[in-house]
Amino acid sequence: MRAARYYDNSDIRIEDIPEPTAGPGEVLIDVAYCGICGTDLHEYLDGPIFCPSATEPTSWTGETAPVTLGHEFSGVVSGLGEGVDDLAVGDHVVVEPYILAEGVDTGPDSVDYHLSDGMNFIGLGGAGGGLAEKIAVKRRWVHRISPEVPLDQAALIEPLTVAYHAVKRSGAKAGDVAVIGGAGPIGLLTGAVLKAFGATVIVSEISELRRQKALESGAADHAFDPRETDIAAKARELTDGKGAQVAFEASSVQVVLDTLMDALRPTGVLLIVSIWGHKADFDMHKLVMKEIDMRGSIAYVNNHPETIELVESGKIDLAPFITGRIGLDDLIDEGFDTLINRNETAVKILVSPND
Fold it and tell me: Between β-strands 120-121 and 134-138, what pairing exists: parallel, antiparallel or unpaired?
């Protein structure tokens, strides 16, 4: 089968590799769509990070480069390994793409398996990936979805779950005013979750296309260009002078972090959902004087069922966030290049490995 293989920084190759089979406790999936994630771009530009090098593994699989990329994907069950009797061939599924050490408690009551030692991701650290025609995945990480949810939209459930976990971590609730700094895929999807929760959402974003997408998709009530509008003043204007209850940093940009600190009311919550590749110059005095509660959020933990329910119930429509569909051969030229050099023109680009 054909797959996108990560060899090293700026070295991704489309190659033929052996097809996987479903071993005991595994599910074989024909991949329908796989999204290109910002993490994939970081691996291409600055890696290896989560990905292994040719000599050093980064996950419990022990694999070294090359590895197959892709962790935001949907597909159809095409085979079941021994012991898997609660799924059927033909089921539509998405994957919670974790690679964890043996023995980690991943039961329904766990709130921290995503923070376990050596955590990594399918499609980054090894174990196959969604940028391939097929993948075999442990049953624990496979989630069935309604066939009424189109498979292209289902590929966005993984990043939507990142957003859902961030919103839950923030404690945002109906009636709150939330400010989101950065309207890339995670920022927009965070807005969609907040709106489903009943919050009022303000987006700060310099890209006109992404501001329009925030409004047209219903992910935001207000969207402003911070070069033209004082975001903190707008937040106070919309909250009787108090400021927002919660803010989400989704850009890893210093000036955005500073703006959100100003936009929050005293005792507000600042949730960091972006991945920072550098240290921030943080105003600790302002945090102390406003008693800001600053929290981090990474990935998800037992959040997929609730996120899937939001999509299946129609409370969140993922269609507006898909801005491109390409084949595997166009991964670099039309996928990575667009998102790296013209990212203001796109939100989520999907790859169909079987086309």
Answer: unpaired
Whole-angstrom distance, CA of residue 215 vs CA of residue 64: 43
**Dist. CA 51–CA 69, nearest whole Å:** 9
What is the tens place of the pLDDT at every residue in 270-324? Answer: 999 998 878 899 889 999 999 999 999 999 999 999 999 999 999 999 999 999 9
> pLDDT tens digit string along 163-177?
999 999 999 999 999
DSSP letter (8 states) at residue 336:
I
Cis peptide before 66 (omega within 30 of 0): yes
Give the residue carrying structure tokens 């296309």.
Answer: 209
Helix (H, G, I), strand (E, B) or coil at 181: strand
On whether the CB atoms of residues 32 and 74 are closer than 8 A, the answer is yes
Q: Which H/E stretch holds residue 2?
A: strand 2-8
Distance between CA atoms of 203 and 224, rounded to whole angstroms? 6
Please report which helix (H) or strand (E) contains residue 234, including its range. helix 231-237
SS3 of 196, please?
helix
Smallest Cα–Cα separation from 181: which of 116, 225, 215, 129? 225
Domains of the chain by start residue, with CATH: 2-156+318-352 (3.90.180.10), 160-296 (3.40.50.720)
Spatial contact of 179 and 244, defined as CB atoms under 8 Å apart: yes
> Distances in Å between the alpha carbon of 321 and those of 219, 311, 324?
10, 13, 9
For the whole model, what pTM was predicted? Answer: 0.96
Sheet with strand 2-8: strands edge to edge: 11-16, 2-8, 67-68
8 Å CB contact between 219 and 203? yes
SS3 152: helix
